[in-house]
Amino acid sequence: MKKIKKYIFQNSLSIIVVLISIFIVGISFHQYFNDYYGYAPKYYEYQKQCKQDKNKESCKIIKQMENPKEKFKKLDVITLSCEIVQNHAFVYVQLLAPLFIIIITINRIHEEINCGIFRYYLTRMKYKDYIKKIFKSSLKPAMLFPCLLILIFLISGVITNFNFRVDSEVLKIAVYDSWKYHNFILYGLILCIVQYLMGVFYGNLGLLFCKKNKNKLIAILLGYITFFVVDIVFYVVIYALIINKIFGYHTLMKYFNLLGYFSFDGKTNFAFVIIISLLLVISSYFILFIFYRKKERMILANEKEND
Q: Within 10 A of 49 (CB to CB), how many other CB atoms are there?
């Protein structure tokens, strides 16, 4: 019991972030059913009036409304999953994704570095091995959003009884894409891989500020701000000014909007998306290596922070 309490206390921030993320997933499902099936109580009220009183006005209204039960039977797992990810409260989670991953990553390692605990580790292991330990600290938090995407798919599957039959009406809605719907498992797998790589990148941005910031909140905010700086450089400088204006490529915008990596269409070059994600991860690890490579600098930075 003491171990459980200690674990909860040490990981309270991470647990809160995970719970908030799951709560927003729940809100997204509530919003979807409220938007598309919120009329159901009125429908059944009019249906009752039509049957009991033969109310002509109620009967006319009923004919103009779709039976919610029949409508629900047509709902498929792909459409529900895509609607939740692309059109409801989960959209805001995408904006907060870097912040959530940075919080979990920094929460895992910040105290260890800034309270000097790492010095005790160095009495039992080489500094190179300890650096590897730091670098690995972003790997588990990066699983958050792939797990949330899988959770959304599973909940959608339970609600729709894993119905993969797509009704003809779905072809008209915004989330529909022929390639995505016909290759949904592959699409979902690619999305999870991309989100995992982006999660590692987010976490690494947070690790950049652990070394010289004793205040955990400042380290988190600096990591989050750095992401937006990178996103602006990627979108405005690399894409808009160089690729678009100088080289004349006008169709690559979606590849340079890092916050847009939660949904793609069938025209997307997925290999290019994965390559960009990998380059971001590799670049972040390279910068991390420069920040942490010298043992003496790390010890001096820790001494200054604790003076």
A: 16
- For residue 161, pLDDT over 70 is answered with yes
How far, in Å, CA of 89 to CA of 96, rounded? 11
Tokens 């059109």, located at residue: 87
Tell me the CA end-to-end span of the chain in Å, nearest whole number.
Answer: 36
Q: Mind listing the pLDDT tens digit for each residue in 106-151?
A: 988 887 777 777 777 777 888 888 888 889 999 999 999 999 999 9
How many residues would you count in the chain? 307
List, in order, residues 6 or more apart from 147 with CB less than 8 Å away.
Answer: none
Question: For 122-126, which contacts have Cβ atoms below 8 Å and span 24 or more sequence positions?
Answer: 122/295
Average pLDDT over residues 64-82: 92
| High-pLDDT (> 70) share of the chain, % | 95
Judged by DSSP in three states, 146 sits in helix
pTM above the 0.85 mark? yes
Better-scored residue on pLDDT, 194 or 305: 194
Outline where 38-143 has alpha helix (H).
40-53, 56-64, 68-74, 77-87, 90-114, 117-122, 127-136
Give Dmax (Cα) for the chain.
87
At 177, the amino acid letter reads D
Q: Are 104 and 144 in contact (CB under 8 A)?
A: yes
d(CA 146, CA 97): 11
Residue 142 in contact with residue 203, Cβ under 8 Å?
yes
Closest residue by Cα to residue 204 from 109, 306, 68:
109
Describe the crossing of helices 144-160 and 77-87 by its angle, rounded to 10 degrees.
Answer: 140
- The span from the CA of 109 to the CA of 306, in Å, is 17
> Taken in order 99, 151, 41, 68, is the CA torsion positive or negative?
positive
